[in-house]
Amino acid sequence: MKTIIGLGTAGCNIAASFSKYPQYKIYKINKGLQSSKDCFDFPEFKTLEEYEKKCPSFKKFFRYVKGDVLFITSCGKISAASLRILEQIRHKCNISVLYARPDCSLLPALKVKNNNVIFGVLQEYARSGLFKRIYLVDNVELSKIIGDVPLREIHTQMNELISSTMHMINVFKHSKSEIDTFDETLDSARISTFSLVSYEGGEEKLFFDLDIPRDKCYYYGVPEEMLKTDGTLMKNISEQLKILKQYDKIKVSYGIYSTSYDTPYIYGLLNSSVVQNDNFRLDKEINL
After folding, report:
1. pLDDT digits (tens, 9 = 90+) for 99-152
2. Domains in the chain and their CATH numbers?
3. What's the mean pLDDT when you consider all of the chain?
């Protein structure tokens, strides 16, 4: 069982969207929660500095936490406590981080400041190897994927998109493939995002506009009947992967898995070694 820890309102809501899958144990940390064995009522402070310096002990709360951990947060004030919380479990866990970036153009100045700090620091920690990986998702890109939905459903559907995509990739990773070319991912490429690819049109929709992906992994969920009868399947997938590769220096691998769905589904995991920076994009400056 994988442990998922949500910090702050956005982090807790995304973590909660994994609760429909029995493979995950969910913990929530936020101010105003009713304390329980899996919910921690974090004290409320006025400043970012207080959230960091006055972070309480989680020794008892995390006493059963071990193994693989996914830590989810965004840029609310409480996220300033992220590193203080993670250092309390780093010695016994393999930590990956999911950072959900909101639409920064609509944020108040304090959240913009906190986003810039947390966004950069968590990437640097992942890049240095202190975290196994950081997954980046952007609400602006997610909203493009889900399309026009009612106001009260926007974040619910975004969270469902994140959790269902990560869950399906986890399922495929632990399933026997029909065929695959997966190898060890580049050790330096620890900054990642997800994508959905249309089988018919080949259009790829990224959860975050990732700068300089060096390693791309695609998971094809193909209906059982299609695996038995479609003689053009492998040819179509090969041609599609050549387009998705984009540049010769990008490493691309794939796996094909049998599913009970009616149509093919394609999930992408893209990995970069470059710290993402909104003010300067290497792929706009370097001819790859």
Report:
1. 999 998 888 888 888 999 999 999 999 999 999 999 999 999 999 999 999 999
2. 2-166 (3.40.50.1440), 181-272 (3.30.1330.20)
3. 94
- Which residues on neighbouring strands pair with residue 6, listed in sequence order? 28, 72
**Residue 288 scores a pLDDT above 70:** no
The residues, any chain, with a CB within 8 Å of residue 283's CB and separated by 6 or more, are: 211, 212
pLDDT single digits (tens) 46-92: 999 999 999 999 999 999 999 999 999 999 999 999 999 999 999 99
The pTM assigned to this predicted structure is: 0.94
Report how far residue 250's alpha carbon sits from residue 173's, in angstroms, rounded to the nearest whole number: 21
Of the candidates 228, 212, 215, 203, which has an alpha carbon nearest to the alpha carbon of residue 254? 215
Query: DSSP letters of the chain?
Result: -EEEEEEHHHHHHHHHTTTTSTTEEEEEEETTPPPBTTEEEPPP-SSHHHHHHTPPP-TTTTTT--EEEEEEE-SSGGGGGHHHHHTTTTTTEEEEEEEEE--GGGS-HHHHHHHHHHHHHHHHHHHTTSSSEEEEEEHHHHHHHH-S--GGGHHHHHHHHHHHHHHHHHHHHTS--SEE---PPPTT--EEEEEEE-TTT--EEESS--SSEEEEEEEEEEEHHHHHH-TTHHHHHHHHHHHHH-STTSEEEEEEEEES-SS-EEEEEEEESSPP-TT--HHHHS--
Alpha-carbon 13 to chain mean position = 14
pLDDT at 279: 61
